[in-house]
Give the backbone structure.
Amino acid sequence: MSVGSIGKWLWVALLLVACTPQQEPEEQVRAKRYDLQVPANFPLPEYSAYNPLSEEGVELGRMLFYDKRLSGNNQLSCASCHHQELAFTDGHSSSKRGATGEQLLRHSPGLANMAWMEGLFWDGGSKNLESQAFGPITAPDEMNQNLQELVSELQAVPAYVDKFREVFNDDIKSAYIGRALAQFQRTLVSANSRYDKYMRQEPGGQLSDLELQGLHVVEQKCGSCHTAPLFTDNHYHNNGLDSDFSRDDFERIYQGRFRITHNPADVGKFKTPTLRNILLTAPYMHDGRFKTIEEVLEHYTKGVQQSPTLDAAFKNTATRETGLTLTPSEKKAILAFLETLTDDEFIQDKKFASPFVD
C-alpha cells in the first residue's frame, strides 16, 4: 500500500472516529482534508483522531500563530519567539522577555516536525500540541493572555468568526484555538536538507568525505539520544550541565523533568532537542547557556558534571570519568555533518510564513 493510500485510509478512519452520531453529513465533510506529505525517510506520524488536519484548519492555525492578539498586551504572537528563518526559534537564551517584561527562563525550542514529537516543552509538561498552546498563551511571564478575553477579541473580527465556523462548525471557543494552532504546527515538516536528499538518493544529496565521517561519528557517539531520522529520541536526559539541582525557585524549573513527574530519577533531565537545522537554532540547551556548537562539543568532552541522575552515556565506569571521547578531527567532522542538516526550503517556505505579510 502506498503512502498516499495509507494517508487516505487514515483520513477516512479518523474522520469517522471524530464525528458523533448527532452530526449531520454536511457538517462532517465541510472542511477539506489536508494532505500531509510524509517524507520517504520518515516514519508515519501519529494522527489526532479528534483534530484531523484540514486545509481550512491549517490556515486558521497559521493566522493565529502570527496574530498578536494572542498576547495580553497585543504585542506578541507565537512567531515573536519562533522565527521561521531560525527554524522557529528566536536566537535568544533565557534573557528574552515576555509580555509583562519578566525574564523568561528557558530557550525557545524549535518547531520542526512537530507531528512526530512526543512530550512538549523542555520538561515534557504537555502531552500534545492541542494543550501545549495554552501554556505560553496564559503564562504570566510569556504572553499573559486571558482565554476569555482572547475569545472576545477574536469574536470581534468577522474573518475569524467565519473561519472558525468553517473549520469547526461552531462559534469561537478557546479549545478550538488550541486545535487550530496544533493543526498548523503539525504541517511544519523539515525533511529537505542535503542529508535527507542523500538518504533518499535525490539530486543535491552529495556528502563529502568529511561530512560522511561526521555522520558516522554522530551515529556512533550521539545517536543514542539524537536518533535519525528525527535526530531526537523524544526522551529526557541529564547531560551533565549541572551537579546541584537543589534550587527550587521559579516552580522548580531548573530541575527538569522532575518538575512534572516528581520522580527523583528525573532530576536534571531535559528533553533531547533535534539536531535538524541545529546551526540555525543557537544558543543551545534549555537555558541557552552555550552560544556555539563548538562550546557544546567542549562541554561533552570536558565539562560534563557528575550527579546521581547523570545519563549512562556520559559515564565511563572503567575510569570513573564523565563525558564523551571526541578527538579534534571527530569534532571537525561532526560540525561538517551538522551543516548538512540545514533545510533551506523549510525556512523559506511561504506556506509557513505570516499570512499578514504580502
Notes: Residues 194-342 form a domain with the Cytochrome Bc1 Complex; Chain D, domain 2 fold (CATH 1.10.760.10). The two ends are 40 Å apart (CA to CA).
